[in-house]
Structure formats: C-alpha cells, structure tokens
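Anyone able to model this chain together with NAP?
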Amino acid sequence: MGAWRIGSRTVHPIGIGTWGMGGDRLPDDEIYADYRSDDREIEAIRAAVALGQNHIDTAQLYGAGHTEEIVGEAIAGLEREELFIATKVWRSHSLRHAVPRAAEESLRKLRIDAIDLLYVHAPWEAIPMEEYIAGLDDAVDAGLARAIAVSNFSADQLLDAIRLSRHPIAANQVRYSLLHHGQVDARMRQVCAEHGVTIVAYRPVERRLLADQTTSPVVLDAAAEVGCTPAQLAIAWVINRPGVVAIPKASSREHLEENIAAMRVQIPEGVRAKLDALGRGAGAE
Ligand SMILES: NC(=O)c1ccc[n+]([C@@H]2O[C@H](COP(=O)([O-])OP(=O)(O)OC[C@H]3O[C@@H](n4cnc5c(N)ncnc54)[C@H](OP(=O)(O)O)[C@@H]3O)[C@@H](O)[C@H]2O)c1
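re: yes, here you go
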C-alpha cells in the first residue's frame, strides 16, 4: 500500500465521514441536532478505528455542533496520537478573531488538546479570505490546531489561500467521485502537487448512488469486471489517484468493512479510462 499523507502526517486513505451523525438538515436548510442514534454512530466510529481507519472528518456545522460531541465520545480513551482529527470552521465564525474561538469550542466538544487539521468550510463570498486564513494561522500559532486546510476551493482560490497563509495549506476538501469530478481537474491536481496539498474527496459514494443504489451500467459492468462492489470501485477510483484520500460516511459494520476493502482494489487502465469518462460531464473535467 502506498503512503497517503496530509501535511506531515500519514493517514489511512479511507477516512471517516460524519455528516448525518447526530443531526441533519431541515428543508429550509437549517441544521439540527438529533441525539436518538448516538449509540449507533459512536459504535460506528469506534468500529472504523478498530478496522484501522484513523482520519475522522467532522465540522462545527454538523448536527448543529452535536456531531463533534459524538466524535469526542467515540474517541475518548483511544490512543490520541494514532488518530487524525479534522474539523471545519463554519461561516458564522470566519472573522479572524472568531476562528480560534470556534477551534476552542470544537476542542471542548472533541475532548482533545489540538485539532490535527482545521479547515475553513468554504470560500465565503461575504467575508474577505484574509480574515479566515489569518484566523486559521492564529489557531495554529495558539496551539489549537496542528495544520490548516480549505474546503470547496477552486484552484484559483487555493492559490490565493496559499499566498495569504503563514502556514502551509495541507488539504483542499472537495466533492470528488467518479460521477462528479467537480473542481478536480488537471490544473487543480497540478496546483495541489506543486504545493503539497492533499485532495480530500468528500461524497465518494455519492450518498449511495455509487453504492447499493448504483444504476449506471458502466459502473456495474466495471465492478463486475474488477470483481468488487460499486462502492469499492468508487472508493478505489478516488484513492488510486496520487495525493487523494477519501472520506466516505458509513454507519454500519457491513458498509465499513465493504468500504475498507477498497484498499485492495486495483482498477486496470482500460476500465479506469471508461470510468474517467463518466464524470467529465459533471464538473471541471
Ligand atoms: N466539506 C464539505 O463541504 C462536505 C460536504 C459533504 C460531505 N463532507 C464530508 O464528507 C463525508 C462523506 O460525504 P457524504 O456523507 O456526503 O456522502 P458519501 O460518503 O458519499 O455517502 C454516505 C452515504 O452512503 C452510505 N454508504 C456508505 N458506504 C456504503 C456502502 N458500502 N453501501 C451502501 N451504502 C453506503 C451511507 O450509509 P450508512 O450511513 O447507512 O452506512 C450514507 O448514507 C461526510 O460525511 C462529511 O464528513 C464534506
């Protein structure tokens, strides 16, 4: 297995997504907390870590703050230095002085001393980039975060962030799957490679459209040819790329085990070419 890195840390290529654990989004877009499935979600995170996954991806936004509490409970008592904990600052706390305050609140919920990777959740139009990038830098200087990152940034926005930041930008977390290439085109890959920025691919199984709800004949045929499930094919397609890790969310042991086995899936070049063509219509590539 190759080494997947974010900044100076080696991470498992398949991280643990947490959107939907401990809350969801109402039709009017308001995010709410939901405590009813806490035991199941905590168990899922612990099972994922027991299976060898070490990169947990969460956010201030998720579950209106409750998801970070679930992660905190799940990792309590585990070997801290084996884990790589990433969280994201939301727009509400993206002014320079507010970012470290948000990081402190995340640390309290996560019950840890420092966040391994602190993201800004998106490039907010209403707030100058200087504000939140300086805030991320300040969080590192204050010892609240070990590394910083951006999410949903275009290649140009990423270059702006790299220019503005005093600390390296370790990752750009973007939607990236074989059905949706999004902002990940050749230029994004080049910028990331030149500046040591890992691409963290969110929604890699397209919320089940690339798992048990797959209808694409190309995906189904490719999975049959490779000898894996559609979810494994989708995750392998992402992590077989240099400098890319995936963060699928899974709440059952069955899904966790299925997804983690994607590490052993190798996609032959001919199959890969057919899969690459699928996402070209949906995104930059
Ligand atoms: N930065 C951002 O703006 C942003 C945006 C979206 C997401 N994210 C992050 O990326 C993570 C992943 O994205 P996502 O949660 O949106 O989408 P996803 O990982 O593509 O899909 C998650 C859904 O797929 C199901 N699933 C996973 N593995 C499966 C399998 N092998 N077979 C069948 N179903 C399977 C899960 O079901 P179960 O839960 O029932 O197992 C869940 O309903 C999030 O959790 C979050 O941490 C970040």
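The mean pLDDT is 96.
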